[in-house]
Specification:
615 residues; mainly alpha; Amino acid/polyamine transporter I; Rossmann fold; 2 domains; 68% helix; elongated
Length: 615
């Protein structure tokens, strides 16, 4: 999942175990996609699955390279950030989150539809049971129980074997007339309009959902990653092609029209009943239901790992990183990963065709960013071989499929776009500090947090003797008076040298140097914030450089909801008339002072204070 595993022995996934994990995800699609496609394109469902199969193979091979390029994991967030920028990476995180939400909902609902084949009493309350199943999985994840790759292997093999038994049994039973009937849909393809063909092509990609989970496994794969990923993906390609197209053809061709119309949610168990009677039906139901619920659990885990990655990048609240004191799990992230799918099930009443339409938005959006991101990286590196051009072809396929779904499925588009836009706007507002600034325009909030921050600064200066608080700097101002304040966000000898030149030019012997530590949440937390290692190191190196130049540097550490507010407050308290800031592209200050932030700081500084910016 998202993030890099740093524990010794973490890279334990062999190619077989990696195959099992991915097959447990992508292998569930065959249980609900034939019915969803039948409701959308009728008896032509097998044609479109077969047509998309070639694109699936090309896309699957690209995921091998994505695993190699992102050994620390991160999936679409990592590859889109590498290829484009961090904001596009965050957009990828939002899209894959939508994908995980719908995976969770559709897998849970489908699992209980299959169970209702054996337990008919469940059928009247599928959404309720699916929701209860997700709540149970949330509790399991908060407690900290994890599925193992070996359990994935057992379940993947059980599902594969059961499905192959269904296929083999039917193949041996078919007469020549039945064989001809199975492929009669080919003759109907010529009657399709261009729009119908595109719509079917876009919808059929759902048959290969789950492929994106491969890019999440690279932190756990045995080295060399490329070799492990390649063998695992070849296994995925072979087993998926053996099951998905064949089961789609058999279910559409052999099930009675009445069954297809009334029981589209569980085609494979109905097919098993025809093939081998009740025993084979029960075997399919048990393997399908367990694998689908397992996939829902995997989706919850995938979603909350995306949330953690976005929270670390400050696009989601830091509160999601909090760990449960008793179990050590990110309970807030788990709850969010469960609440949204519960809402989706309630809103759709568990209707599989609606869930399928909604599912395609995030799935294909993530495919576009990952496939297109890899093409971009290859282009930058000067690759122009066969792999590059085939990669462009498959990117074109998924772009077309995504655009078609956006047009043909307005409800799904509205849902997906709304969720993604809300997530991105919230993430940007949180990351850029707009929410914090708005909250701290409220006087009571501002006064309360300032009181807490000042108390925290006083405590920090007692714990870390290399720094002084802003209040202490004000107290000793008569002894070390200076008209210059330099703000640092890391080691930057150039900006310190510029500040030293200004101090000497003013005929002074002292220099104020400040490091502003932003508190991570919207409000100052219950626990006092201590200086980070980066801040202590930056102030320490600045003091050494100033001492070598014969200047006394006062290392000030303060905390605030924003760098602008912290620097401005220090300027007013110390009464300086010059602030020196360095804009190295590697520092947080560079990210802060792009755009309107320089103007914002200039507006809140004392009237006689100059802002000096060093490139």
């Amino acid at each position: 999942m998202e993030g890099t595993s740093k524990q010794p022995g973490a890279r334990q996934l062999t190619w077989l175990l990696a195959w099992a994990v991915v097959f447990c995800d992508i292998g569930t699609s065959v249980y609900y996609v034939p019915g969803i496609l039948y409701n959308f394109v009728g008896d032509l469902a097998p044609l479109f699955v077969a047509a998309v199969a070639g694109g699936f193979v090309l896309l699957a091979l690209k995921y091998v390279e994505i695993c190699e390029r992102t050994p620390g994991g991160g999936g679409v967030v990592a590859i889109a950030s590498m290829a484009f920028n961090e904001r596009i990476g965050a957009l990828g995180g939002m899209l894959i989150s939508v994908d995980f939400f719908l995976t969770c909902a559709i897998s849970s609902v489908s699992g209980f539809y299959y169970l209702s084949s054996v337990f008919p009493s469940l059928e009247d309350s599928i959404p309720l049971y699916a929701s209860l199943g997700l709540i149970f999985l949330a509790i399991v994840n908060i407690v900290g129980v994890r599925e193992s790759a070996r359990l994935s292997l057992v379940m993947a093999v059980a599902s594969l074997v059961t499905n192959l038994v269904v296929v083999a049994t039917l193949v041996l039973q078919l007469s020549w007339e039945q064989w001809k009937h199975l492929f009669s849909f080919i003759g109907e393809a010529g009657a399709l309009s261009r729009r119908e063909a595109l719509a079917g092509f876009g919808a059929a990609w759902l048959a290969f959902s789950g492929l994106e989970s491969m890019s999440q496994l690279s932190p756990s794969m045995k080295g060399p990653i490329k070799r492990t990923a390649k063998f695992a993906m070849v296994g995925v390609i072979i087993t998926v092609l053996l099951t998905s197209p064949t089961l789609t053809i058999l279910s559409i061709g052999l099930l009675p029209d009445a069954v297809k119309a009334e029981r589209s949610e569980r085609f494979i168990s109905e097919l098993a009943l025809i093939a081998g009677g009740g025993i084979l039906e029960v075997a399919v139901v048990l393997t399908a239901a367990s694998l689908l619920l397992f996939a829902a659990n995997t989706a919850i885990i995938g979603a909350y790992h995306v949330f953690l990655a976005l929270a670390e990048r400050k696009y989601f609240p830091r509160r999601l990183l909090f760990r449960n004191q008793q179990f050590g799990t990110p309970h807030n992230a788990v709850l969010l990963a469960t609440i949204v799918p519960l809402g989706v099930i309630a809103a759709t009443d568990g209707k599989m065709e609606v869930l399928g339409d909604m599912y395609a938005f995030g799935l294909l959006g993530a495919f576009v960013l990952e496939s297109g991101g890899l093409d971009t990286l290859r282009w930058r590196e000067g690759q122009r071989g066969v792999n590059f051009w085939l990669g462009l072809v498959v990117t074109g396929f998924v772009v077309v499929a995504w655009l078609v779904n956006l047009v043909e499925k307005p409800v799904a588009t509205t849902f997906g776009v709304s969720l993604t836009v809300i997530g991105m706007l919230y993430g940007l507002a949180l990351r850029e500090g707009w929410i914090k600034e708005a909250l701290h325009l409220v006087p009571s909030v501002s006064r309360r947090d300032l009181r807490k921050a000042l108390a925290g600064e006083a405590h920090a200066s007692e714990v870390v003797h290399e720094i002084v608080s802003l209040a202490m700097a004000q107290e000793i101002q008569p002894l070390y008076n200076s008209s210059t304040l330099v703000a640092v966000a890391g080691r930057n000898p150039h900006v310190i040298a510029e500040a030293i030149r200004r101090v000497k030019g003013m005929g002074e012997k002292a220099l104020y140097c400040i490091y502003v530590e932003e508190w991570p949440g919207l409000f100052y937390g219950k626990e006092e914030l201590l200086p980070s290692e980066v801040g202590i190191d930056a102030l320490g190196m600045a003091a050494k450089q100033a001492a070598a130049a014969g200047i006394e540097l006062i290392p000030i550490w303060t905390t605030s909801y924003s760098l602008v507010e912290g620097i401005s407050r220090a300027a007013h308290v110390l009464g300086v008339n010059g602030i020196v800031i360095g804009l190295s592209r590697r520092t947080a200050l560079y990210r802060l002072f792009r755009g309107q932030a320089v103007r914002k700081l200039s507006n809140v500084l004392p009237e006689d204070c100059r802002l000096i910016i060093c490139d």
